[in-house]
Amino acid sequence: MREFWFYFRNGIIGENPILRLMIGLCSVLAVSVRVDNCLAMGAGVLFVLVCSSLVISLLRNFVPREVRIPIFIVVISTFTTIVDLVMQAYLPVLSKAMGVFIPLIVVNCIIMGRAEAFASRKPPLLAFADALGMGVGYTLVITAIGLVRELFGYGTILSIPLLPSSYQGMMFMVLPPGAFLLIGIYIALLNRFTGRAKR
Q1: Which are the contacts of 20, defined by CB distance < 8 A and separation ≥ 6?
Q2: 148-182 pLDDT, tens per residue?
Q3: Separation of alpha carbons 199 and 196, rounded Å
Q4: What is the pTM of this model?
Q5: Three-class SS string for 96-148?
Q6: Nearest to 3 by CA among 141, 157, 128, 173
Q7: Beta carbons of 29 and 181 less than 8 angstroms apart
Q8: Which of 16, 60, 119, 150 could be a cystine partner for 56, CB 3.0 to 4.6 Å?
């Protein structure tokens, strides 16, 4: 169990996909303007990451190295299609707002990277811990970015007005540079919190 918790924590802090590995940033820049988008994207990435890592880990001894990438893509696209269809059926408004970024989970660098670098080489329990930590780490950071962007960009959180109606909103926060600025601030805070800045 010590290894399980090590890899789980590693995905949240040690190798956080956004703040440490700097991967999967396209979806962060595009959908983090509203908190509900962030929660939906985080849940989708978490589901696909955990399920595909488990399946790829279970298949690792049966898949020839030469054809592993096409097989990984088939596995990942299966779970991505499930997420896309469920959102279209039960959350049509949110699905429309997310646009192409839900189907594009299949080519998300985080999922493909963890499949190749971790799940295809480790047993299922550790692959599950790594995927869970990476998914939770991604969801926490994209939601933290969404909270600030929506509050200062639109004056709302989850579309509930929190700032006075006279508030005009900061266009900078709605645009991708606002997300880049927040990612930089969060990286600095994480480095300060973990003491990495001193090294």
Answers
A1: 14, 190
A2: 999 999 999 998 999 998 988 899 999 999 999 99
A3: 5
A4: 0.91
A5: HHHHHHCHHHHHCHHHHHHHHHHHCCCCHHHHHHHHHHHHHHHHHHHHHHHHH
A6: 128
A7: no
A8: 119
